[in-house]
Amino acid sequence: MKADSKSRTCPSSVCEEGAEVIGLVNEQGIVKFLGQPLPVTQEFVEAAHEGRSPEKRFRFANRCIEKGCHQWTGTSCGIIEDVVKQANTNALRELPRCGIRQECRWFHQRGASACNVCPLVITDNFSE
């Protein structure tokens, strides 16, 4: 998924055909990123919806839809702003491995501070 200068990739999307898997959520609730995103097919979507919510187990990326998203503030993504403010983390010496950084909405919005907290973001964090 390549982005031009105006479009960006949302690193916290939903499981749908056309998205990409960018990470797996481990037992501690931390996202372990894949070196390269994997395409989400219809077959993957069907299999992933068996059991717990796929957004509790995986992180997905897709095109940032800006004002079409309820997290859009009018100028930026509100999710990463909230997470950066809430998380009291020290800067990582080495950024997490990431296959979408060049197109990532959060990275272009907040730089390395977004990368520092990105592994903590679980798209579906609602209780089951």
Walk me through the structure:
The protein contains 5 helices and 4 strands; from the N terminus they run βββααβααα. Helices cover 25% and strands 20% of the residues. Strand 2 and strand 3 form a beta hairpin. The chain is an alpha+beta fold and 128 residues long. A 4-stranded antiparallel β-sheet has the order 1-4-2-3. Mean pLDDT is 90; it is low at 1-5. The protein has helices at 42-48, 54-57, 78-86, 105-110, 112-117; strands at 9-13, 20-25, 31-39, 58-63.
SSE arrangement, N to C: EEEHHEHHH
User: What is the share of helical residues?
Assistant: 25-40%
Measure the end-to-end span.
31 Å
**Radius of gyration from CA coordinates:** 14 Å
Q: Structural class, please?
A: alpha+beta
The chain-level mean pLDDT equals: 90
The number of helical segments is 5
The biggest sheet amounts to: 4 strands, antiparallel
Strand order of the largest sheet: 1-4-2-3
Strand content: 15-25%
Number of strands: 4
- Form type: globular
Extract low-pLDDT stretches: 1-5
